[in-house]
Amino acid sequence: MTAEFHELKERYFSWLKEKTTLQAIDNWVEVTTPFLDRHNDYMQIYVRRDETGYRLTDDGYTISDLEMSGCHLDTPKRQNLLATTLRGFGIQIDKQSNELFVNASDQSFPVRKHRLIQAMLAVNDLFYLASPYVASFFLEDVESWLDSHGIRYSPRLKLTGASGFDHHFDFVIPKSSEKPERVLLSLNRPDRANAERAVFAWEDTKSARSGETSAYALLNDSEQTITDNVLNALRAYQVHPILWSQRDEVCEELAA
Prior knowledge:
Elements: H1 3-19, E1 21-25, E2 28-36, E3 42-50, E4 53-57, H2 61-68, H3 76-89, E5 92-94, E6 99-104, H4 109-127, H5 138-148, E7 154-160, E8 166-173, E9 182-187, H6 192-205, E10 214-219, H7 228-235, E11 239-243, H8 251-255
Parallel strand pairs: 9-10, 10-11
Antiparallel strand pairs: 1-2, 2-3, 3-4, 4-6, 5-6, 7-8, 8-9
Helix pairs in contact: 3-4, 6-7
């Protein structure tokens, strides 16, 4: 572990602790996190203690907000993708209320709180299709692009970082005789918050991979301009940014 990584990790957890606020509401505790949704509102979860431990929930907000915005998850393909995404984080869904939830013990509470928040961010980012943002699933577009260019990959790899938290990487391109292993992240909304989340995930987990493993981030610039702050945040921690509009320039590099 480098001194820079330890400093990044300490800043990250200090920021989480400083920016998280709690408020009691009846038998629940409302937890306001420092993570922003696409409305630039702070994301909230709700926690209740019972005889078996804790129940953590988004109170149905994530999916209800998408549906009110015109993104309906009413096709088999979208339902399957939702289930796959939630399963990757170990999060359940109440089909009647659309509530995302997970149960936790005292020991597992921090990790499962982290997983719920990450699942909310992933679902929000993955499914928001209403104009003028995206016209199709960006992750699906990336996968189709990889397939069409014969780029080998393993999808949706979960790695446990030095912090003990799990992080999900969209694709891993295996090592070849010419190139080392490469992990590939897809950022549908490449703002600074998502870039910093990707950087932390990579820095936290890269020690678990081969020392030659490198990281790439595909940035969806179809409907938005990617700022220098995002690009610089990624480059500072050796995550190579690739604009979606320029993706064909790296085909040979990724296919090697």
